[in-house]
Specification:
Blueprint lengths: L1 E2 L27 E3 L4 E7 L13 H20 L3 E10 L8 E11 L3 E9 L5 E11 L2 H8 L14
Antiparallel strand pairs: 1-2, 2-3, 3-5, 4-7, 5-6, 6-7
Length: about 160
């Protein structure tokens, strides 16, 4: 398993979901499992991220699902991409203070759009939430806009024209 980190590409990120240096964020560390063709992360969230007192807010769960799919586009398809459309189904509450795993995959990649899916799984193996999304590959201008600066050479292979 390979630890995924934005600094690998020379990009300074303050990502709400994955960046451990963001004091207000979730700090969820993602890993690529190339044998299984998925990205994974384990997380436990405290009540700062609750909706109902014991449930993690649904928007936070969706952010984690979206991040898993975004990392899948990067780590598995070698492509920086942004969410075009997403659909989520919540099957069971994600509880504050309990451990979960999120898994993300790329199901199809036609060069410009990527079909992705992700799921949040509890410690018993039950799926609590699942999402599908279409991501759009970033071109050079959008990557520069997203990074806030010119994209380093180390990241250029992840940009599609």
């Amino acid at each position: 398993m390979e630890r995924l980190d934005n600094r690998r590409w020379g990009l300074d990120s303050n990502c709400f979901v994955c960046e451990e240096r963001n004091p207000g964020g979730l700090g969820v560390p993602f890993f690529a499992d190339r044998d299984q063709q998925m990205v994974t992360a384990t997380f436990t969230l405290d009540d700062r991220f609750s909706g109902a007192p014991t449930y993690v807010h649904g928007g936070v769960v969706l952010a984690i699902l979206d991040e898993a799919m975004a990392w899948a586009t990067i780590a598995l398809s070698g492509c920086f991409a942004v969410t075009k459309a997403t659909s989520t189904r919540f099957r069971a509450p994600v509880m504050v203070g309990q451990s979960y795993e999120v898994r993300g995959r790329v199901d199809a990649d036609d060069g410009s759009e990527l079909d992705c899916r992700a799921e949040v799984i509890d410690s018993s193996g039950a799926v609590c939430a699942e999402a599908t999304a279409v991501f759009v590959a970033m071109g050079a201008a959008q990557a520069i806009e997203a990074a806030g600066a010119d994209v380093p050479d180390s990241a250029r292979d992840f940009i599609r024209s």
